[in-house]
Amino acid sequence: KRMFGTYFRVGFYGTKFGDLDEQEFVYKEPAITKLAEISHRLEGFYGERFGEDVLEVIKDSNPVDKCKLDPNKAYIQITYVEPYFDTYEMKDRITYFDKNYNLRRFMYCTPFTLDGRAHGELHEQFKRKTILTTSHAFPYIKTRVNVTHKEEIILTPIEVAIEDMQKKTQELAFATHQDPADPKMLQMVLQGSVGTTVNQGPLEVAQVFLSEIPSDPKLFRHHNKLRLCFKDFTKRCEDALRKNKSLIGPDQKEYQRELERNYHRLKEALQPLINRKIPQLYKAVLPVTCHRDSFSRMSLRKMDL
Questions:
Q1: What residues does the DOCKER domain cover (predicted)?
Q2: Could you tell me whether strands 144-155 and 55-58 are parallel, antiparallel, or unpaired per DSSP bridges?
Q3: Looking at the predicted structure, is the pLDDT value of residue 188 above 60?
Q4: Integer Cα distance of 96 and 98 in angstroms
Q5: Using CB atoms within 10 A of its CB, is residue 195 exposed (0-12), middle (13-18) or buried (19+)?
Q6: Residue 158 to residue 236: CA distance in whole angstroms
Q7: What are phi and psi of 132, to 5 degrees?
Q8: Which end of the chain is more exposed for a tag (fewer CB within 10 A), N or C?
Q9: pLDDT digits (tens, 9 = 90+) for 221-256
Q10: Percent of the chain topping pLDDT 90
Q11: Are 305 and 283 spatial neighbours (Cβ–Cβ below 8 Å)?
Q12: Quick one: pLDDT at residue 224?
């Protein structure tokens, strides 16, 4: 059980930093380091250098507008980041070691709404994914490596919902198939999935995004993808409930029954939302006439997304 690193992005802003002004770095810290710890350490270090009244820590992870900063102050922005891998990379990065070695790309997410607030209702919640590339791969001889490239991906509210549901489904699958089984973890994930309905829970997500077919054809694919995510989610909930039933003792049978009742209520409420297909996505393609010898055949293909 090796201790790998925890990573933070640190940005420096202000002429007092000299060459470091507007430079960004990824810091590698021991795996148990919290954001407050590195923030306190850097604040103390640069506070002694420039004066505590001159140094200011930017508390959010939003893009920094230099025009709004005081030219007589020095600013640092610290953000927790995670190693980022493309889907094809994950095929080769199987073990825990693979996922913590030769790291050059890191990601952090910033929630936002179009009116400037960080958090809003489901239908107005966007997310900005920022992917950083460093000049050298970690682990490296230095624990601070400069960022050489930055890429931003903006997720629309329905894309945020898709990502959240995929994450919930993955958590359920992991807790269900964990070996050895961890009943507490399984019940915690189940409770968050089928427990008493809470704001922005799975049912509310479905009601917001799946209650009506979108008028914009560009959203058809996202609508269909979210619908399929919910189908997978309900199947994983059923698997998790079955697994939990095999793990519990007599003292938890009533709790199991309550979870099952909640699941059936959730499934019943979701059924009309996830069974409605968008007709435009399932139109038959024009008949294809294929001449072979003395007869022709007709075939219809379904667009399967």
A1: 1-279
A2: unpaired
A3: yes
A4: 5
A5: middle
A6: 21
A7: -105, 140
A8: N
A9: 999 999 999 999 999 999 999 999 999 888 999 999
A10: 63
A11: no
A12: 92
Q: How far apart are CA 245 and CA 293, in angstroms?
A: 61
Helical H segments across 195-304, by residue range: 202-210, 220-247, 253-274
HSE (CB half, 13 Å, CA atoms) of 170? 6
Place of tokens 């007869």: 295
DSSP string, 294-305: TEEEEE--B---
- Which pLDDT score is estimated for 181? 87
d(CA 199, CA 202): 9
Mean per-residue pLDDT, 88-93: 88
Structure tokens at 122: 């489901």
Structure tokens that stand for 69 in this block:
């900063």
Dump pLDDT digits (tens) for 251-283. Answer: 999 999 999 999 999 999 999 998 877 766 655
Q: Do the beta carbons of residue 241 and residue 260 sit within 8 Å? A: yes
Structural domains in the chain, CATH included, are: 6-155 (no CATH), 158-275 (1.20.58.740)
